[in-house]
Amino acid sequence: MSQKIIPNLWFNGDAEQGGEFYSAALPNTTSRITARYPDEVPESQAGFAGKPLVVDLSVDGFQITMINSDAHFRPNPSISFMLNFDPLMFGGDADTARARLDETWAALAEGGMVLMELAEYPFSPHYGWVQDRYGVSWQLMLTDPEGDPRPFVIPQIMFAGAVQDKAREAAELYTSLFDDAEIGMVAEYPAATGAAGAGSVMFGEFRVGDQWFSMMDSNVAHEFAFSPGVSLEVRCHGQAEIDRLWDALSAVPEAEQCGWLADRYGVSWQIVPDNMGELMERPGAYGRMLKMKKLVIADF
Description:
Helix content is 20%, strand content 36%. It is α+β, with helices and mostly antiparallel strands and 300 residues long. The chain has two domains: 5-72 and 227-299, Roll (2,3-Dihydroxybiphenyl 1,2-Dioxygenase, domain 1), CATH 3.10.180.10; 79-217, 2-Layer Sandwich (Signal recognition particle alu RNA binding heterodimer, srp9/1), CATH 3.30.720. Strand 7 (124-131) and strand 8 (137-142) form a beta hairpin. The longest helix has 16 residues, at 94-109.
């Protein structure tokens, strides 16, 4: 699968351990350290010199990046990950799919917090929502193999609080920025339900290339909001694409740093060159990057 957008998770110094945890907890999952802090870092990062900076997770071929940093941010359920346990993944055996779901649920729930109990719901015979020990939220669902095929991992973006009922608007913006992108199925709230207004998105999907995302307007008021605890990384081919996406997305000037931005809904993005690894190997590149807001390839 070609993956244009890579979710990034913020970890409090324990990304390597997190990679080991997810490799054991999630089906078809591996992790590896792909970047380390340089030996010479700013005083504020002195404890990280030489330690892992980036740990990449492959979940059934879907890449998630873990950033090894401090306790400044933490993931929350505003962006979660749906795991579709389709019996076709397990030789067409629904019992095996259900058993693997239960095993994954038990591993993720240990030391975490259940947000929706694992049970039968109108939309799935076996579903639950859990926040794991690292604060990352997962929605586990036993899916119908007769339905439209979907990947095992689908990030879900939930709009609440100051951006309540903005899911459809955000999806229209995001799909307008990428080639081969579209909004898929949208199910609306037929009437005002809790915090959600009539006609807002109860559940919807959009696609960017081969990737699927889901979105929803929450019908429950939440205290949390989008944050850099979960960010969306876009790897751009050249400075022109960086400039275009930066100009279209960045809406919070004080959030601009080292290729990071926050859009008008508060969602954090990282707009980076697709040869970032090569650029960071240049002498002094790390220090130069720390001084940038938008990344400028020529300045590395």
